[in-house]
Amino acid sequence: MLTPRTSTPTSTTGTDSLVYLLFAALGVGIGAGSLAWFFGNLANDLIGFQRPWAPYEPTTALLHSRDLWPGLPETALVIACYVLPALITLASALLAIWIWFRLRGNPKGLAGQRELTSLLPKEGATKSISLRTSLKGSRPKDVAPDDRGVLLGTLQPGRREIRSSWEDVLLAIMAPRSGKTSGLAIPAILRAPGPVLLTSNKAANDAFTTTFDARARVGTVWALDPQQIAHADRNTWWDILADARDLAGARRLAGHFVTASVDESSAGDFWSTAAANTLTALFLAAANDGRPITDVLSWLASPADRTPIDLLHDAGLEAVAAQLHGTVAGAVETRDGIFETARQYASCLLDPDIAAWVTPPQDPSAVREFRPEAFVTSIDTVFLLSKDGGGSASAIIAAAADAVMRAAVIQAERDGGRLDPPLLAILDEAANVCRLKDLPDLYSHLGSRGVIPITILQSYRQGQRVWGETGMDALWSASTIKLIGSGIDDADFADKLSRLVGDHDVRTVSVSTSESGKSTSVSMRQERILPADAIRALPKGSALLLATGIRPALLDLKPWYREPGASVLAASSEEATAGITKRAVAKVLHQHDIDKAA
Question: Is 359 within 8 Å of 365 (Cβ atoms)?
Fold first, then answer.
């Protein structure tokens, strides 16, 4: 009994590759023969054998060149018909292979130069002229690259620079050691045309040491370093209560101390809310009477002290005074719980070395006062440094960053709507040392005021821990430029990104054999442009760009150490890092001497 033969699908990959290889070999042969024919005739003319060009016979020119040009010297014949064609063919093949690999490395469906026109130099220059009053009347070709916007990287494939505009707000989610500092923060600081703010929890071999000297040549460099990350002498102070003279400012300041101490999930409970209200009242009382913030610690230690209530009455803040009085006069257990919670939130101020950075100095001539309203109209730089974890001064850092950005918005309104040159606010380690509770809300309008924030997070979940799921979604949605670096190990987030990048059509060829012969069918199927595993495996130094209104694209970051002048920056960084180490050792030895003397 005969068994019916069923059709068997057959892969055509090997056959197709062989066909492509044969066509490639044929193309190389024809190209080399054509070059041999061209250079042979050209050599024949140049050397002086004036006769009509030999007929087009590429095979003969390559294999039997002496038959076409019998009078050419041997050396000239070899160079014209073999050396030159071989070199040109080899160069062309290498160029074709390079282009093929570049195109192969860029999955179909991602944006190319045509889609990213608005982020390329020509349109970027035109847009910067419309956004910045100082560039009015300039021709696009005369606008310097760094005046066009923040450098994001270069497009894959190709090497075209991609820059965001001066109205884009940026969010970068990059794992540690993925190039977020060297490839994004440092280049942005070095190229900024206006004032720069940087928050960080590191100093040595980081953005602080790499950019300090370069920015010092542009303008004044300020540093708030309450926990002595850079171990520098305290030559700067900032009046933390300057914006707390009204209820809104005092409430914002209290919110920074609360947000720095608790996660979003517990920020709205009774004790946190009551402690925030108490801190608001005490900050308001101290600010309106011109007292330092350290007086607030004294009032927190003695809940029965009526001084802040009296000061609020004197300032005409009757409602706030009544609320504070109600807390103080309430049940002792409740009052003590509220004040103890408030004391925990403000505990970093118990360290006199930290408090000295935000209280008036005894000798004002020896210490400069940092004034945010003056800073935003300069081309200066301010580094805001703090450790993360328990007892950190991150509340002070967040308050300072908030004061600078709000001062910039106020100045922009005075200037007609936009700050020019724009303020670049790089919030590195934003979830650890600069927890601005209302950052998602600020993102919706900062860009339109010429205040350009770059919030850098290590993961999406890190942002959710600070701002909650709703807040992080709002921050994500409000960011007009999103950069996703390598090392995304969150499977849910990687899958979300993969869905956002989208699908593309893939052509599938199937060949079946049966008793009646072969049949070929072609079908189309949908496939992810970048699967989740491909997003997780993005190489270091590259980033996925998600820009509003533009298809996703892949970029190569441009780390500072690969740019011209990197050796000078590296030397400055090494010198500054050595200085930090030297000062740290000197402090340890000094403390050791004090302990021995005691």
Answer: no
Alpha carbon distance, N-terminus to C-terminus of the chain: 107
Q: Is residue 385 part of a domain?
A: yes
Q: Are residues 578 and 523 in the same domain?
A: no
The answer on 553 and 519 residing in a single domain is no
Question: Residue 493: which of 459, 528, 456 has the closest Cα?
Answer: 459
Q: Which of 319, 353, 387 is the last residue of a domain?
A: 353
Which three-class secondary structure state does DSSP give residue 66? helix
Structure token digits, residue 184: 């994004």
* Strand, coil or helix: 224: strand
Instruction: Count the domains in the chain.
Output: 4
Are residues 398 and 460 both part of a single domain?
A: yes
Strand partners for 509: 522
Residue with tokens 């026109």: 117
Let me know whether 469 and 438 are in one domain: yes
Peptide bond into 157 cis (omega under 30): yes
- In DSSP notation, 283-333 reads HHHHHHTT--THHHHHHHH-TT--HHHHHHHHTT-HHHHHHHHHHHTS-HH
Between 318-328 and 270-288, two packed helices, what is the crossing angle to 10 degrees? 130
Using alpha carbons only, give the angle 584, 180, 165 rounded to the nearest 5 degrees: 125
**Last residue of some domain: 51, 82, 104?**
104
> Do 339 and 435 reside in the same domain of the chain?
no
Question: What's at 112, amino acid-wise?
Answer: G
The residue segments making up the domain with residue 336 are 247-353
Residue 114 contacts by C-beta under 8 Å, 6 or more apart in sequence?
A: none
The reply to whether 131 and 206 lie within a common domain is yes
Give CA 50 to chain center in angstroms: 66
Give the amino acid at 541: G
Do 451 and 578 reside in the same domain of the chain? yes
0.85 surpassed by pTM: no
Please check whether residue 241 lies inside any domain of the structure.
no
Q: Which stretches of 57-116 are DSSP H helices?
A: 58-63, 65-68, 74-78, 84-104
Residue-wise DSSP of 11-79: --HHHHHHHHHHHHHHHHHHHHHHHHHHHHHHHHHHHT--SPPPP--HHHHHH-HHHH-TTS-HHHHHI
Same domain, 220 and 141: yes
List, run by run, the mean pLDDT of 10-residue segments along the chain (598 residues): 42 55 79 86 77 82 82 84 88 78 62 90 94 92 94 85 95 92 95 96 88 95 93 91 96 94 74 95 96 96 94 96 95 94 94 94 89 97 85 90 97 94 95 91 93 96 92 95 93 93 76 72 78 91 94 94 93 92 79 62
Q: Find the helix packing angle between 332-345 and 294-301, rounded to 10°.
A: 150
Instruction: Pick the closest to residue 120 from 100, 149, 91, 92 (CA basis).
Output: 149
